[in-house]
Amino acid sequence: MSLRISLVLIIVVSLAGIALTWVIKNPPIGSSKEADLPFFYTLSPDDLRQISITTPVGKKTFYATFVDDGRNVASVWYFEDPAGIPVNFDRWGGITFLLGGPKTQRILAKTIDDPAQYGLNRP
């Protein structure tokens, strides 16, 4: 392949990459993303002290202890039974954030015109 063809291909690929990046970063007008839905409630992971999970097989309870190493305070989660065994951090990581609060499915209007739309009609 000649040098001239190689340079033309490099320029074309570069321009295509720039155009693709611009289109991704600046979507066309009128195509807006759905608004980020608010949380229904939120709990800080530091506020959670105990988590109990009940299934048909049985019940497991986990509790948190807080360790201060001088620089920061970290929570360490343990099984309640058998006592004193810490949970696997790789598998447990993020559970407290998931339990910290669900996002809403939809946003209610400030004024409700049709209560039946939200299941609020009179029986």
* Beta fraction: 15-25%
Counting DSSP H or I runs of 4 or more residues, the number of helices is 3
Coarse morphology: flat
Q: Low-confidence spans: pLDDT under 50, at least 5 residues?
A: none
How would you write the strand order of the largest sheet?
1-2-3
Q: Would you report the number of β strands? A: 3
Instruction: Report on the biggest sheet.
Output: 3 strands, antiparallel
What multimeric state do the chains show? Answer: single chain
Alpha-beta classification? alpha+beta
Tell me the distance between the termini: 79 Å
Q: Roughly what is the average pLDDT, rounded to an integer?
A: 82
SSE string, helix = H, strand = E? HEEEHH
Provide the helix percentage.
Answer: 25-40%
CA radius of gyration is: 26 Å
